[in-house]
């Protein structure tokens, strides 16, 4: 009996719009190298196709389309490849970041239907969209410090451009936000109730549009007002996450007498101490960088995370504890925030390549 191989990325042109559905629902559409390559090939083909005025992308869940956008990169692959020194790991990050760059610079409106879980690599393929659509089911986060990594896929770039110190807060804690906070923090453009997505998606295939801008305008016209209060903790975030070091942030939170401060510091104490320091430096540096420069910096950082800390990859250990052995007891090195020195952080920001030989040298 022959087994049918189902594509993990479904793409088709209907009417004047290119439609992409991420089709790996059992893994919450976590991105594999094959999916990254399929997305890149599809977007490059449509870029010069006069029939395609705009692109729409969505995820799928076990019941069908929508419901889950993308939970990030395939961390089991990252653990296996990182443990074994598999060169495909290098290809994955190089090609994923090039895809993120293409989406941010795409010449046609790229519209992301960010229903359900949108984390890590899912943010990478949606934050560069011309229109970022969220629903009442959206759960958005950059949770990489929980696995001893950093918010990559351009995370330095888009988080550092959130208002106030929201970028530092989201990057360090990995906290999850919903639609209202996503819009308030400039990580989404509009709200569409989940039960209205299918009708809008179908209308894109059947209506006639004058140009790509008309496609984008149509989707935006379907947005529904959401009581956007912004996070009630915004004043706290801007106060505590403005401190210049992780140590100062943690000390201030521990000295504060509020439930929010206690919960936040408890979260930070679970994260990789080393990577908290690295991530704070990443976000602060990225604030003055363009996207291409930020992606090159993050590509350097990934090489350090997986290959240049001999036998001490915080990332491999973090994934082991969270997703492989699931003991939720990572052995971080060093174990305490207070034991991280500037000399441990500095190497992450030294590129292992000369500029002309950087894997992402061509990005502009």
TrEMBL record:
One biological process term in Gene Ontology: L-valine catabolic process
InterPro entries in the cross-refs: ClpP/crotonase-like_dom_sf, ECH_dom, HIBYL-CoA-H
Keyword rRNA-binding applies: no
Name of this chain's protein: Enoyl-CoA hydratase/isomerase
Domain Enoyl-CoA hydratase/isomerase: from-to ranges: 17-349
Presence of keyword Transferase: no
Keywords, sorted A to Z: Hydrolase, Isomerase
Source organism per UniProt: Acidovorax delafieldii 2AN
A Pfam family of this chain: ECH_2
GO molecular function: 3-hydroxyisobutyryl-CoA hydrolase activity; isomerase activity
């Amino acid at each position: 009996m022959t087994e049918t191989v189902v594509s993990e990325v479904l793409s088709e042109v209907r009417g004047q719009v290119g439609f992409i559905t991420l089709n790996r629902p059992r893994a919450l559409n976590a991105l594999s190298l094959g999916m990254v390559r399929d997305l890149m090939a599809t977007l490059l083909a449509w870029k010069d196709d006069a029939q395609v005025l705009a692109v729409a992308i969505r995820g799928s869940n076990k019941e069908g389309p929508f419901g889950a956008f993308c939970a990030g990169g395939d961390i089991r692959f990252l653990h296996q490849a990182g443990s074994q020194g598999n060169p495909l790991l290098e290809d994955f990050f190089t090609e994923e970041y090039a895809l993120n760059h293409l989406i941010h610079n795409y010449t046609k409106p790229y519209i992301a239907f960010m229903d359900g879980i949108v984390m890590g690599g899912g943010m990478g393929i949606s934050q560069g969209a011309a229109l970022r659509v969220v629903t009442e089911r959206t759960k958005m986060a950059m949770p990489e410090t929980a696995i001893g990594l950093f918010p990559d896929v351009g995370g330095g770039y888009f988080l550092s451009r959130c208002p106030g110190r929201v970028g530092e807060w989201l990057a360090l804690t990995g906290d999850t936000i919903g639609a209202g906070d996503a819009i308030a923090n400039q990580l989404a453009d509009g709200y569409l109730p989940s039960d209205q997505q299918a009708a809008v998606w179908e209308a894109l295939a059947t209506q006639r549009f004058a140009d790509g801008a008309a496609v984008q305008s149509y989707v935006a016209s379907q947005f529904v007002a959401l009581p956007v209060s912004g996070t009630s903790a915004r004043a706290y975030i801007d106060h505590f996450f403005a401190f210049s070091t992780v140590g100062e942030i943690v000390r201030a939170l521990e000295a504060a007498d509020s439930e929010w401060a206690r919960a936040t510091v408890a979260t930070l104490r679970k994260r990789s101490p080393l990577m908290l320091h690295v991530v704070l430096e990443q976000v602060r540096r990225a604030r003055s960088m363009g996207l291409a420069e930020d992606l090159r910096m993050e590509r350097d950082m990934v090489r350090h995370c997986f290959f240049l800390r001999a036998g001490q990859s915080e990332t491999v250990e973090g994934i082991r504890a969270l997703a492989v052995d699931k003991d939720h007891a990572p052995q971080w090195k060093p174990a305490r925030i207070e034991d991280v020195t500037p000399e441990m952080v500095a190497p992450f920001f030294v590129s292992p390549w000369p500029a002309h030989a950087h894997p992402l040298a061509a990005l502009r």
